[in-house]
Amino acid sequence: MPRIELPSGIALNTRIEGPEGAPWVMLSNSLGADLSMWDGQVDLLAGKYRVLRYDQRGHGQSDAPDGPYSFEDLAEDAIAIMDHHGVDKADWISLSMGAMTGMGLAIDHPERFGRMVFADARSVATDAYRQMWDQRIATIQDGGVGAVVEGSLGLWLTDEFREANPDVAEACAKIISGTSDKGYIASCYALRELNFFKDLDKITLPVLYLCGGKDKGAPPEEMQEMARVTPRAQYIEIPDAGHLANINQPRAFNEALASYLDL
To answer: What InterPro entries does the record point to (predicted)?
Structure first.
């Protein structure tokens, strides 16, 4: 599917798969990734859904407009993509920054969505969390995105997975390296202002929180608390998975999706 131009003037890369006329599901990527991070889930989903995935602004083949970005910007992008493709309502599957985008959508645009899946995500920025993003921004300003590839892989994938799957780790490294410095830094500013926890109790949609048991980026105890305060939430932990649980443990991740989405 070609890039599409939004009313805001930026162009985002989208891809549609699955049978015409099927219900829609939208997939939203994490920081430093692109729509290819969902390759291991598309076949499962396309048996039931018309699958719409996209590169968040600043990522993949989408434009990287001037920053800083906000989660309001990212939510508006998602709604504009839906409007462009004639999607009145969709289920939503997302991870990390994509899941944070989904939280904003569930709070502000519940009429456009059905079942939500938020994987490996925090919901509020603590002082320490903001400082971490400030440090990462400074690192990229000094050395480019390449300077954070190894650290990102250490969060995304467990050591055991990297040793057993060097080809996957190499592919992930290439995706991170392919993210523009400008887009990555602009997205970091959205993450350092993260502030959805106070509104999770207002979400009326059903939500599945998925968390890698070894996720150091969004620890299980934080996601358990998010699920506790979200009225219609379920929580499933994926054993032996790091921050990208869908890549670390695709079978367990897909089984959780299949059960929740009646696939």
So the answer is: AB_hydrolase_1 (IPR000073), AB_hydrolase_fold (IPR029058), AB_hydrolase_sf (IPR050266)
Residue 213 corresponds to which tokens in the numbers above?
Answer: 């048991």
Q: How confident is the model at residue 216 (pLDDT cuts 50, 70, 90)?
A: very high
Distance CA 67, CA 69 (A): 5
Question: Residue 45: which of 35, 31, 60, 56 has the closest Cα?
Answer: 35
* pLDDT band for position 77 (cuts 50, 70, 90): very high
Residue 256 is encoded by which pair of tokens?
Answer: 């959780």
Rounded distance, CA 45 to CA 92, Å? 11
Supply the DSSP string of 79-126, one letter for each residue.
HHHHHHTT-S-EEEEEETHHHHHHHHHHHH-GGGEEEEEEES---B--
What's the start-to-end Cα distance of the chain, in Å? 25
- Containing 16, the helix (H) or strand (E) segment is strand 11-17
Dihedral over Cα of 137, 138, 142, 146: its sign: negative
The answer to whether the CB of 35 falls within 8 A of the CB of 54 is yes
**Residue 134 and residue 138: Cα distance in Å, rounded?**
6
Secondary-structure class of domain 3-261 per CATH: alpha beta
Quote the CA–CA distance of 1 and 130 in Å, as a whole number. Answer: 36
Is 253's pLDDT higher than 80? yes
Structure tokens at 155: 């969060």
* DSSP secondary structure of 146-198: GGGHHHHHHHHS-HHHHHH-HHHHHHHHHHHHTS-HHHHHHHHHHHHT-B-GG
pTM for this model (two decimals): 0.97
